[in-house]
Recover the amino acids of this structure.
């Protein structure tokens, strides 16, 4: 069984929307506008590219990342990885040609089947709605969270407000940085 890892820049109050400057959100670009950049706090981002074997995205994140990430040196390792996009509306001709192998998955059942295949970890970037659905379905195995010392109020959240049973997490790695960022890596306890 493959490990499904959710990775996120997240505010202290749980917001994950538009961390890099995506349009349409009041606090867009919050990750670097309000917090001093310390390279050591982002080491996990390089490690994720080295350890992941595939990327899983929702349609909205795919449409935001696919025009930009293929040509960015910071994400070069992702270019050659298989990519999976969960969408009921995306068509094959909507996929970009310069980002390597991309497969459209139509349901959470397709994601569950993908987890049953051979291969290394699958990493989920962005994709707030998809993350909520994956979590609610019990499909996420690990969280890589860079928690920013900010309260953003409104915005898309990483975790849903669904009334569900308690889901226990085990802290397996953590570090706090001089700029207030916290790295928290949690395994989902089953």
């Amino acid at each position: 069984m493959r490990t499904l890892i959710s990775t996120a820049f997240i505010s202290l109050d749980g917001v994950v929307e538009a961390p890099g400057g995506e349009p349409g959100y009041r606090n867009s670009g919050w990750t670097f506008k309000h917090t001093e950049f310390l390279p050591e706090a982002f080491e996990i981002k390089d490690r994720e590219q080295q350890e992941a074997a595939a990327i899983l995205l929702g349609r909205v994140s795919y449409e935001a990342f696919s025009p930009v990430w293929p040509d960015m040196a910071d994400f070069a390792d992702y270019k050659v990885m298989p990519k999976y996009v969960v969408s009921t509306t995306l068509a094959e001709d909507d996929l970009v040609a310069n980002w390597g192998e991309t497969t459209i998955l139509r349901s959470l059942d397709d994601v569950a089947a993908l987890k049953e295949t051979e291969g290394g970890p699958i990493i989920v970037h962005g994709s707030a709605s998809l993350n909520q659905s994956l979590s609610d379905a019990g499909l996420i195995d690990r969280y890589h969270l860079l928690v920013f010392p900010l309260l953003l109020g409104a915005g898309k959240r990483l975790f849903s407000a669904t009334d569900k049973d308690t889901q226990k997490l085990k802290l397996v790695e953590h570090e706090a940085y001089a700029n207030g960022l916290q790295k928290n890596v949690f395994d989902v306890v089953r």
